[in-house]
Structures are given as structure tokens and as C-alpha cells.
Amino acid sequence: MTIYFEDTFIENFFVTYLILHIVFLFIQEKSNIPRRIFSSFVGGGFALLYPIISLSGILLFSLKILLGYIITIVAYKTNSLKRQLFFFCMFLFVTAIYGGVSLMIHFSVYGDFLGHQKLPSILIVGLLLITTYFLKQVISRIYQKTKLNSFVYKITITNGKIKVKTNGYLDTGNLLCDSNNCPISLINYKLFSQLNNSFDIKDLLQQNIGKLKNGRYIKVKTLTGFDSVLVFSVDSLEVFDGKDKYFIDSPSFALSKVKITELGCDVVLNPRQIKGV
């Protein structure tokens, strides 16, 4: 029985610690390590009481919910009740994920969910560590994409009778400008062809750019030296940031020689070009 209690405490201590670790990643806040460790001790201690407490059904479920809330109060210090309840809900959500993984592991080994046989604690903790790793990767990707999406704008480019709606990525590192200090955004070849459908690829190869509005080549510095980049203008650019629209008259674009891959956008916007954004 002593070994059972030790295994139960160690297993629940580590599982509680891992769950709290993921929850803090979800809410994008740094955790207080001593509080998290103490809270994990509380979680491990509570697990030892479950076999002793003669409750079942809704009463036992309610007790577990209450004890879970106590664990979150110990782990997360905040003066906001709303924030505390959100942390608690995230704790329940992640706990459900780990519980599902544990049931899946048990079913894979024993072929049932009843739990008459118990998996070794080291196996459970090891597999949940792997689960934690994958959850961290998912959370990181979600927040990274969310952060990048905040720089993606709906844009409308008008060139004569041609009007194209697409997405533009606002790159604060794009400081490209011409000799007159005019800011220039980057555009991919697909969109360039849409806006200039009468411009043949042969003209581009032979540098016959007379058909382009304000068509010109400028020298830009690269890692290997200097290169010539085709620059042209269109009639207008409209940028929508989700709230307001910004109108730019006769904006300049440079045809990118490398593939633009920013979140599937066709344009890399110049921040100096987009006033107010």
C-alpha cells in the first residue's frame, strides 16, 4: 500500500505540474514557480484522499471541481475574479485533454476504459510529457500566427480599369524607397500580371517598360552587392485595417524577385507608404 500511495502522489504531482505549465502558456503569463510547485503538491495530496473519501457520483465530481479550483487559486495569484475563473476554466480544459490521452493510452494497452489494471506511473508521466511537448508547439504556432495576422490587411489596388482585392502584409522592416525618398511596397509576379495584363513577359525580359506607369529601374543593396529592381506606379491603393480605410494615391510598387510567402499575401506593404497604420 505504501508503494501505491507513493506512486499516486508522484504521478498526480507531475501531472498537475504539467497541466499548470500548459495553462500558463495558454494565458501567455509567466508562472510563479514556487506557487506552481506548491499547487502540484496540493494536487498530489488531494489524489491520496480520493480512495479514503466515501463519496460517489455527483458529490465526488463536485468535490473534484472544488479541489481543482483550490489548486488554481494556489497556483495563480490575481486580483481579478474574471481572470481567476478564466484560468480555472483553462485548467479544466487542459485536464480534460490529459485525461483523454490517459484513457487512450489505457485502451491501447488493455483494450478497455474501465481501469481495472493500472499503467506504470513512469509510463503515464513519460507519455504525458510527450503530450505536453506537442501542446507547447501547438500553442506557440497559434500565438505566432495570431501575432502575424495582426499585420495582415485587406487591400484594393486600382490600375486603370483593373481593380484587384487581395491581402497585404505590413512589414516594419521594409524601408525600400527610390532616389526621391518615395516609399515602395513589394509585389509578387502574379499580382503584377493581373494589374498589367497588357504587359508581356518578353517586355519584362527585354526591359521594355514603357507601358508601365512611371516604370523605372532602381538600384537596391543586397547581401551580395547591388541589384536592379523594376518599380512602377498604379492609380491607387486602399488599405483596410479592420476599422478604418486608408487611401494612397499613385503608390509605387517594386516587382519582387523572390517569392513572397508572408501568410499567403501578394504584397509586402511599406509602413511609410501607409499613413495612419
What does this protein structure show overall?
With 277 residues, this protein is of the alpha+beta class. It folds into 2 domains: 148 residues, no CATH class; 117 residues, Cathepsin D, subunit A, domain 1, CATH 2.40.70. 48% of the residues lie in helices and 19% in strands. A 9-stranded mixed sheet has the order 4-5-8-3-9-2-1-6-7. Strand 4 and strand 5 form a beta hairpin. Helix 1 packs parallel to helix 5. The termini are far apart.
Uncertain spans, ≥5 residues at pLDDT below 50? none
SSE pattern, N- to C-terminal:
HHHHHEEEHHEEEEEE
Averaged pLDDT, please?
A: 81
The main pleated sheet reads as: 9 strands, mixed
- Total number of helical segments? 7
Number of domains: 2
Report the sheet-strand fraction. Answer: 15-25%
- Strands side by side in the biggest sheet: 4-5-8-3-9-2-1-6-7
The count of DSSP E runs of length 2 or more, i.e. the number of strands, is 9
- What structural category do the secondary elements indicate? alpha+beta
- What coarse outline follows from CA principal-axis ratios? elongated
Terminal CA distance reads 66 Å
Rounded to an integer in angstroms, the radius of gyration calculated over CA atoms is: 29 Å
This entry's quaternary arrangement is single chain
Helical proportion, percent range: 40-55%
